[in-house]
Amino acid sequence: MEATAVSVGKAVLEGALGYAKSKAAEEIALQLGIDRDVAFIVDELEMMQSFLMTADEEQDKHKVFLTWVKQIRELAYNVEDTLMDFTLHSDKKPSCWCILHTLRERHDIAREVKDLRAKVEDVSNRNLRYQLIKRSGSNHSSVEEQTSVAAAAIFGIKEARHATFEQDKSKINLQQLIKSEEKDLRVIAVCGTSCNLGKTSEIRKAYDDQEVYKGFQCRAWVQLMSPFNPNKFFKDLVRQFQVYSREVNGKSEEGNAPGYDVLIELEKLESLGQSYFAKEVAVHVNTKRYLIVIDGLSSVVEWDWVKTYFPDKKNGSRIIVSTQQVEIAILCTEQPYQVTRVSDSTGPTSKSNRVTSSWNNSAISNSEIQEEEPKFMYSGIGNAFSSTGKKFERSRTIALVDDVLVGRKAEKSRIIDLICQPDHKQGCKVISVWGMGGLGKTTLVRSIYKSQQLCGWRRAWVTASRPFNREMLLRSVGLQLDKDIQENPVVANESHQEKKIMTKVEVQELIKQTLQEKKNIAMMGPQELIQKLTRFLETQKCLIVIDDLLSIEEWDSVKEIFAKANRIIVTTRGKDVAKYCSREDKNMYSLEGLKGDTALNLFKQKVFVENTEQIDLHSDHDMMEQARLILKKCDGLPLAISTIGGFLATKPKTTTEWRKMNDRINTELEINPELRTIKNVLLRSYDGLPYYLKSSFLYLSIFPEDHMIRQKRVVRRCVAEGYSKEMHGMIAEEVGNKYFDELFDRSMILQGEDVNIYGGKNYSFQLHDIMRQICISKAREENLVLTLEEGCSLCSTNGTIRHLAISSNWERDKDAFETMLDLSHLRSLTVFGNWGSFFISSKMRFLRVLDLEDTFGISDHDLDQICKLFHLKYLSLRGCENIHHLPDSIGNLRNLQTLDVSGTRISELPATITRVSKLQYLRANCVYVPREIEKLNALHTFGRVDVRHEEGIDTLKGFKHLMQLRKLAVVGLTAANSEEFWSAIASLKHLRSLSVNRDFPRIEFDCSLGGRLFPPIWIESLKLAGKLARLTEWIHHLQNLSRLQLRETELQQDAVWAIGNLPNLEILHMRFDSFLGKELLFVQASFPRLFQLVLLNMRHVTFVKFEDGTMPKLELLQADQWGEHWEGRQEFTGLRYLTKLKEIWLGSQISEEFKENVQNQLAEYPNNVSLKLMSRD
């Protein structure tokens, strides 16, 4: 788990080095005579970067090391700022009268670089002085402590959320549990943190108790090593068994302490090998009553391994497990009341109580947690022979209460259907359940795993350990399958053999044979283990669950071994991992949050435990409003709903109490041990991010709660900040989009509502409220972002401010803003709500990003001050309706990369815009552009350009020279300029997205296309608005086209057939009279890759027919506003032929008769298609 400071430090260093090593920086350094100093600085920064890349996790937690990292980060910021400042000086062209001033500036620059070099040397030397970084040859590694909070997400156990014991009458000490008269083997778990002295002293007190000491014939206290080492484990057991035996029997020689004699004896036996010690342990535990303490258990996998060595001989033996994780404690114990939790405040007293369920806040009785004991009947000897076996050992069962699956019964049913569906393909079917932490993935899969519908399957459950250990995972699966087969040797195995009626004698013979062939899996070498597993999987019908898989690499390490398994279920937080494991979308299951009444029902179930406490929230408006606000914060997350509901169950059921919770819920999530688990579960997702994704994620703390964040906006900002850079043939914007797509795949951000309507990708997203709090908390720790909002105190502001966000509810205090904030190193300023003219000052000389999107009150005269921010790389005035003109001084922004003035009243760009030679992204609403637009040769996104004016032809000719253009939008194409336009863009080999709008209705703007002239063949996205007369003559050239949007194109059926032959078309939108016919026919073998079809405002169309074999991959179908020119029936036919269809969206203007027709067709549809009826709002 990499510290946030290290991740941010890596990202900042990368940015500083990127600029320091650029050609521009080298030229400037050479001109100013500081090239040697700059080279030295670059070399030192590169070495620091290498150190950070190799820093291990233990160092990440070292406070001195983290302080050094923060110093590196600040130094990197200063290096980059200084070098960029030199650029401004070098751009000046000195005249004779200011030559002395220029010389003085050069002298000042040289002195500043010397100072900077000295700082770099000093920071570098601190590493040597304090030995902060170990050499790369060091073999030191650390295993991160796993949090105990996973238990809350999986099991809903209250003890996983807080580690306190109540002083009550039910207090049971550890000695009493050990000395109980039960003859069965009992496992007692004691849970506490690593720094907790009470846990160890409590166990030691019980272990040394005289009655306990005399009550067992052999005993041992073993500290587990990570990774688990069987050799050492057996030797420790044998040594302590023999020491204890000598103590009891008094057999030490010559008065030596027992340990001395045993050590000498064991050294002599060392040559006998591991098998001797294993057999010696077996002799003791099979013939004697034993007491074993297992200290330091860190995973379920270790427990699955260890427990196989200790048989239950019904002689009252006991095992005490000491662990830091409540999840492990619960999984190890056979009775729920035996889980003991020691908190930091409890001291040496152990207070044992029954496990309390957070799902209903009442103790779970033993009867509520039962092991399944399915009976398999074999006929043929007159009476039925019953073979009963414990199908699920207690270490693999969970405290599952029905309400855990509130709102999940449909999901459970669908996944069980997926498991049970016959698979016509040979090989293993892998089903992936994915989604963000806290959604209940593991709980759902546990319920499926225990389902009686799967009683004929051999089953094994493993949780991927951290760090991942392939051998331990495989061994755990082998142990579970081996035990399952031995306890139930005969199970109907439909996948490998026919059902057979067996006699009792045959069953007994099979059991005998199985036991004879058994070899202790825990002792096998890796290759022998794999061979054993392969035999299991080839001969048995097996279901294997791999819980919490994090990466594709982890799956690659085991997939070949599990290739013969019938079914595998993987739970993961990452969509990319789920897709890689399952391969087919139909085997992927995205778990979503609870909606509406389902979330409310779960909340009420948690809060109102007793029937006497029930309150009708629907009749109590105030309480209902508070409940609604709580659920909004939970945002459908079952873990959050259950945990907060369980907490409120212990409080008075009043509006005041709930309002208090809403007012301080963010603070409670930070400090309340009962609620902190929610945040900790989600933190695991953050901790697993690579450093470059952490920087992008933390950057989102700038945006306010519930804000829908446009992906293009934040990506362009990240490019300007240096978080996203060109790499591997991808431009920086493509890399940035990839980063945020990955954050979505990792369930760190939630997709916006427009994901399916506009092209099948994320155009906007938002943060889950609790995930946003994590984002803000981590950004605050590193002093990355300062947000001015209601109630904030500027007095507590310290350190250098790099990113400033001004919230809409901040009071706009000019005096506080100007006197209490040091803005001299500010890099980004984002304003939400009303503008204040004092927000911009000359102090902000290093400002790179100025984001004023949708800001109210800014006007033209404010832009003059903005155009003095010479380092500016990103300027957004999007949605600022009072902006009418850009000043000529916009040409002074030589570093500007992004300019977004869409949504303003700007209709013409000034001539000086052509001086902004680094401009890459220019968005506006239908603007005229000046001559010499070809000077902006770095542009890759340009639109919307109006070419109707007199200079329009010059503009079109200028397009020929914009060789980096990837996206272009043009308005005002006419018959007169059409040929010039298509000729100009024909050579733009990087152009991938094109939008063209005609000047007047009825103008055929493709009249010049066909023959030798057609759109660039590498176009992937095409939007056309206007009549198309010759589409069939040129559309076939666009073999790479994947998105096509048509508007007012007035096509006939033959044109639709031509479009259907495009091999890579995935998305087709037909809007506003794009088709003139009454009947629209999609013929067989057409649209082979289309997955989204949108038909809107098709006023002439009344009938759409899908033939068998058309659109074999269509998943989404949307329709609205049809047949306005015609009376009578409007309908789809042939929906049954769309075999991959998942969703149909019907708009509010669709007739009831049409909707009824669709519903009737879907009733006979073989797949489960979702029908969404859009409202009129």
Automatic annotation (TrEMBL):
Ranges where the Disease resistance N-terminal domain occurs: 14-94
Protein name: NB-ARC domain-containing protein
Species name: Setaria viridis
Lineage: Eukaryota, Viridiplantae, Streptophyta, Embryophyta, Tracheophyta
GO terms, biological process: defense response to bacterium; innate immune response-activating signaling pathway; plant-type hypersensitive response
Family stated for the protein in its record: Belongs to the disease resistance NB-LRR family.
Superkingdom of source: Eukaryota
Keyword Flavoprotein: no
Domain Disease resistance protein winged helix: 702-774
Keywords for the protein's UniProt record, in alphabetical order: Coiled coil, Leucine-rich repeat, Nucleotide-binding, Plant defense, Repeat
A single MF term (Gene Ontology): ADP binding
Residue ranges of every copy of the NB-ARC domain listed in the record: 174-335, 414-611
Residues in Disease resistance R13L4/SHOC-2-like LRR domain copies: 825-1161
Keyword rRNA processing: no
